[in-house]
């Protein structure tokens, strides 16, 4: 399974700021292409996937994603039914209906989202 992982920017590389950022995440240090995000500042968080920074995120979102990934690892490694682990790591998803992202929501005739 391929998942984007949170990574924190160490520095931009290359001439004039470059298009590559040196980042650190759960799997160590990696160079990410920043053509999708634009220049990044040291300390910023991004979602890294297949060698590219896909999205800039805040520290809170990075921590939330990291918790979810740790919970998945725990579940996969335990082989047991871990309802408590699931509820703790995915608390923001428990007891609520799924929500479409804003860009997929139908628009009302007045132009707002339904």
Commentary on this structure:
The chain has helices at 59-78, 83-89; strands at 5-13, 20-25, 28-33, 45-49, 52-57. Strand 4 and strand 5 form a beta hairpin. Helix 1 (59-78) runs antiparallel to helix 2. It has a 5-stranded antiparallel beta sheet. The chain has 2 helices and 5 strands; from the N terminus they run E-E-E-E-E-H-H. The chain has 2 domains: 5-57, SH3 type barrels; 61-95. The longest helix has 20 residues, at 59-78. The protein is flat and about 50 Å long. With 114 residues, it is of the alpha+beta class. Helix content is 24%, strand content 28%.
Question: Which features does this protein show?
Answer:
114 residues; 24% helix; 2 helices; SH3 type barrels; alpha+beta; 2 domains
Strand segment count? 5
Sketch the major β-sheet. 5 strands, antiparallel
Strand content: 25-35%
Which CATH C-level class of the largest domain is it?
Mainly Beta
Annotation field: number of helices: 2
Q: Extract low-pLDDT stretches.
A: none
Query: What would you call the structural class?
Result: alpha+beta
- Specify the overall morphology: flat
Cα radius of gyration in angstroms:
18 Å
Distance between the termini: 34 Å
Question: Number of domains in the coordinates?
Answer: 2
Summarize the entry for a quick read.
The protein is α+β, with helices and mostly antiparallel strands and 114 residues long.
SSE map:
Elements: E1 5-13, E2 20-25, E3 28-33, E4 45-49, E5 52-57, H1 59-78, H2 83-89
Antiparallel strand pairs: 1-2, 1-4, 2-3, 4-5
Helix pairs in contact: 1-2
